[in-house]
Amino acid sequence: MGSVLNIVKIGGNVIDDESELQRFLEKFAALPGKKILVHGGGKIATRLAAEIGIEAKMVEGRRITDEPMLDVVTMVYAGLTNKKIVAALQKHGCDALGLSGADANSIKAVKRPVKDIDYGFVGDILVDSVNKLGVKKFLEAGFTPIFSAITHNGLGQLLNTNADTIASALAVSLSDLYETSLVYCFEKNGVLRDVNDDNSVIQSITEKDFDSLKSEGVIYEGMVPKLQNAFHAIGKGVKNVYIGNAANLHLFQQGGFGTCLVSK
Amino acid sequence: MGSVLNIVKIGGNVIDDESELQRFLEKFAALPGKKILVHGGGKIATRLAAEIGIEAKMVEGRRITDEPMLDVVTMVYAGLTNKKIVAALQKHGCDALGLSGADANSIKAVKRPVKDIDYGFVGDILVDSVNKLGVKKFLEAGFTPIFSAITHNGLGQLLNTNADTIASALAVSLSDLYETSLVYCFEKNGVLRDVNDDNSVIQSITEKDFDSLKSEGVIYEGMVPKLQNAFHAIGKGVKNVYIGNAANLHLFQQGGFGTCLVSK
């Protein structure tokens, strides 16, 4: 087993707030050791699409990515957002390298099969989607990969792919090579015992705790699939999964960051 | 001196023609050995800017890059165009890695000083702008860097930079490490003896020939600065500069591609 690797996922809400984003990036740059950032999209893509007359198509809360929308998300995620993040990290001394899944063939996905719904150019990640040896080359050369949520199918087609899933797939795959932790940054301080009390963060949750917390109703709704995915990643070799507030990332090294999910 | 490196620059006119572009990329992918592609922007940025109500500002034929326009060119050049090219090259078995100058701090520029005209967020390249050891890491790891015409200043600011200049700066800098040739692809078959005869390509021009051809009036107008820049690059260590038709790139290895500029 090689050295430690931290994979941090940052969501759209931080990306949409310029000063939040800058504060977060300064903290991410200061994180020692090997690391990867995966970023979501934010509202810029939706706004740009509206401005150029592309209607955002949603089915059952899922965005449909037709060809004009794929162009928009490629522009915004892999272009504007990714390069702004890379330039900001370089300023803070982090040798950032912006990537889509097409670059260095780092993440190959398959266009989601059409069943009831045609999601359009949406990529699903498979078990061997991540080119871990390619990503390893960048890490070993001292670069910090910054992934946007765009992948490709290896046949010339770009695909829009969920950023949480990319982060998780990278973590599972790279845990063969590194002692890998996955850090989900969101707008809460962690998994809360009392949803109305931001200071009621549960510091550590095992899979067994998770079952109890679900039956107690402490963990519910959107948090359930998030944690299910996290424990799935742990089951596949990821050491720990953290869930916490982007604004607290500086506490990560001191063990004071959010909720830590552990296998047992 | 290391191995051979070819740096190919492709212009906007090819980028704007989807089938031309695909044909060119197939040929570029087939080019053996170490190589780099630098691509210009094309008309998509201008069209997108118009669609979202950003007026293209030109002063003396030069585009002024204000902040909204910088966002547009970053989206289009470093996002849409760059990632489409990378995905297409991956399809053809070329391990392409899309880069802006901010990525891996590969090309640092300075915001053009305001004299009579404020060009806005336009980057000028200096003698030590290229991080040649960073770019070398990618080449030695087997990747083919694909540069969009976006750089950064190292202080968090992205900058719009001329693609011809980027190609030339890369070639000059990397000629310290590789036997480097620079290949400008454009819409003509090369430097023509008779502008109306596409088959009148001058196969080889020395700097002395260039002076004669200028005084004879064979080379004039826009071609003069192009060739001046090319001979400048040769004076700085670049082995050869080629100027020819993107559609003929497959002839490059056989010595049948366009006009070759040589030092003597």
UniProtKB/TrEMBL annotation, chains A, B:
Keyword check for Nuclease: no
Binding site for substrate: G41, G42, R63, N160
Annotated metabolic or biological route of this protein: Amino-acid biosynthesis; L-arginine biosynthesis; N(2)-acetyl-L-ornithine from L-glutamate: step 2/4
Reactions the enzyme catalyzes: N-acetyl-L-glutamate + ATP = N-acetyl-L-glutamyl 5-phosphate + ADP
UniProt cross-references to Pfam families, sorted A to Z: AA_kinase
SUPFAM superfamilies listed in its UniProt record: Carbamate kinase-like
GO biological process terms, semicolon-separated: L-arginine biosynthetic process via ornithine
Residues annotated as domain Aspartate/glutamate/uridylate kinase: 7-245
Name of the top EC class for this enzyme: transferase
Localization per record: Cytoplasm
Enzyme Commission number(s) from the entry: 2.7.2.8
Cellular component annotations (GO), alphabetically ordered: cytoplasm
GO molecular function list: acetylglutamate kinase activity; ATP binding
Major localization listed first in the record, in broad terms: cytoplasm
Annotated site, Transition state stabilizer, chain positions: K9, K226
Family: Belongs to the acetylglutamate kinase family. ArgB subfamily.
PANTHER family cross-referenced by the UniProt entry: N-ACETYLGLUTAMATE SYNTHASE (PTHR23342), N-ACETYLGLUTAMATE SYNTHASE, MITOCHONDRIAL (PTHR23342:SF0)
Function (record text): Catalyzes the ATP-dependent phosphorylation of N-acetyl-L-glutamate.
NCBIfam families: argB (TIGR00761)
UniProt protein name: Acetylglutamate kinase
UniProt source species: Sphingobacterium wenxiniae
